[in-house]
Amino acid sequence: MNLTDEEILELHELLNGLVEKNLPPQKLKRLEDWIFQSSDVRREYIAFMEMSSSLSHYAEEIISDEVAEDEEILSFGSRIIQFARPLLAVAAVIIAAFTIYNYKGFQVEPISGFKQPEESLVTTVSNLSEPNKSVFAVLTNSVGLEWSGGASNSPKLGDTLGGATMSISDGLAQLEFIRGATVILEGPVEFVIEGTNEGSLSSGKLRANVPPVAKGFSVELPHGRLVDLGTEFGLHVHDGGSTEIFVYKGKIKYEGTSDANESFIREVSTGEALFVDPYGYPNWIEMPSEPFMGTADLAFISMEQSQNRYSSWVNLSQEIAESEETLLYYSFDNHAPWSRTLNDVSRQSNGAVVGCKWTEGRWAGKGALGFKRKNDQVRLDLPSHHPELTLGAWIKLDDLNGFAVPIICSDSNSNGSTSWYVNPEGKLVLELSVNGKPERYESSVAFRKERLGRWMHVATTFDPSSMLVSHYVNGRSFSREKVISVTPLSFGPSLLGNFPKGSSVKNKRSMRGKIDEFVLFDIAYDEVGVRRLFEIGCPYEVPSSFGSTTP
Amino acid sequence: MPEDSPDRSSELLQLMMKYQRRIFAYIHTLVPSRSDAEDILQETSLTICEKFKDFELGTNFYSWACQIAYWKVRAARKKYATAKVVFNQEVLDVITQTRSEMEEELDVRHVALSRCLQKLNERDRRMVLTRYESGKNVSAAAQACGRTVQGAYKALNRIRKVLFDCVTFELAAEQVR
């Protein structure tokens, strides 16, 4: 072995990234070239991947041991053969195929070596593909899941499910059907698991990924039935009974009946969208439509992608923390649930948490602070003055209800003291106190109803060189105003998520929502810089058309 | 034995039961994503069933199966571009060549790994085995062990290195014996 210690460390970092699917393209290229050029690296890679498959083998072996009594055991001659779970399907395929070829190719009687000769091999195979008739699906992942008040069923992660009704008021739930289809439900949603390869959606949104093995997966809808023909699709059943069907990949067949008893069959292929109106009439629509952008979370999120995005954000977060340009950086990550200190990971301007509770942030396992009660706030002190500034935050607002929502507000009346908030109309506002009077820079409306209850990235820059204050929502500039007075900005004693008592803002109250990242830079970023903060930090896939539909 | 003998079918089952882990490991070396490797294993298994009548009993079944798997990987590379197979063909070829020189060592590594797993503390063992359960990811491992996802990433990287070094040590010790 001719690799140095540093090279071995680098190689293992690349290999870890490879198996966790979060290796950036340039690093993948580095690994590929390295494997090609160095036989030592190649051997190390092969040994590492062998370990990976052995770990899968042992992990399944242990599970098989734990649930041995529930697992399928095939007796073969005098030996008992127990399949490890991941290979169960493969084993079934082998037996099924081999049975087919037995009959087609070999023209022989069913195998006589089985212990139960009265049971045909085909029966055994069909039992294999239906391991347990009462189990249709498994709840395999969830994010911020809340069950509806009257829900009769509230399974936990990992629970197996039979013919269950999933009444979800908020959050995401991932179901894996026994036949192989994966469905992500986004609350609020009403979905019934009807079988190992079928369900019904009476309201709300779902995204389904159906591998070839589960072809034929079907969903009952208010006016018909969708049958998958090997695809990936999104569904949205509105309250009035209308339905939107979006096919991302592959093809589906929609069979429906209108109220006037007319039958319709439509095939919807990649990139196409169908709208079934409340009376059951199907119409082709453009995709994606703006109202459906609200379901981008569901449409594009997958738990694995989410993990990859989280890893990318962790790297960005570290970069921000180490940057000379960062004045203050609350990443809200890695805090104990009881912590009353909000750590500034940049320059140690830690905040004191008052009232608010730690909760889940943009990703499972990432922290955020929830603001709910009137005194909930984080108190901090930032004494310096800054000629230019970028403010950025990831926030999720529950509601406005005619009130202004504070993000950060200075509790000082000195010249340049700064507050940043959303006004009752949903406009993002940067407010400076200049000679005792407020100077306000207001955006156009940023928070409409459809933007509430979801993670949003907001940023505002104060740039004296261009004499502009720019507001950004989700990485796009959508409002610019001329600087009125060139005054250095300051915060001094300040509150995150609340207004100070003496604030001149009207209709104010504490924030109702969550913050899971807050940062101040002492330079004014341009749109590219802000866009990067959004794109890397975004928990959802960033659609390319996003910009044109942002206010 | 005649080609169409019923015993030939049971022979196939026995061979598959014996070698399927190794065939999967071979595919996984060429296709780093476990789920993609499992898909290719399924396709490979079907072709093995189809072609088994051509297989000469007594010759090396594993080599024969790996040849089929290799062509399945090549086909997947063409069909899905780099979606399933991330490496280019030249790299796949040198990996295949080197792997064929390491087969014995890899078997020893597989057995040694079970001993190394026993040496881990309970929490680390639970974390790594949860991560490698079918359909589970780092998030699930984090949840099972009460850690943050970021913490779980770091822990898994550390555990994999510990296991890798342990296996390498066991291998060296084996050669001394």
How would you portray this structure in words?
The complex is a heterodimer of chains A (551) and B (177). Mean pLDDT of chain A is 79; it is low at 64-86, 99-133, 288-303 and 543-551. Chain A is of the alpha+beta class and 551 residues long. Chain A has helices at 5-19, 25-37, 39-66, 85-106, 121-129, 290-293, 296-300, 303-322, 527-537, 546-549; strands spanning 73-76, 79-82, 137-147, 160-161, 165-177, 182-195, 198-209, 218-221, 224-237, 243-257, 263-269, 273-276, 282-285, 326-330, 341-342, 351-354, 357-360, 367-371, 377-386, 389-397, 405-410, 418-422, 427-434, 437-445, 456-463, 468-473, 476-482, 489-496, 513-521. Chain A is globular. Chain A contains ten helices and 29 strands. Chain B has 177 residues and is mostly helical. Helices cover 79% and strands 0% of the residues of chain B. Chain B contains seven helices and no strands. Chain B has helices at residues 6-30, 34-51, 61-80, 89-119, 122-131, 138-145, 149-176. The model of chain B has no long low-confidence stretch (mean pLDDT 84). At the A-B interface, helix 1, helix 2, helix 3, helix 4 and helix 8 of A face helix 1, helix 2, helix 4, helix 5 and helix 6 of B.
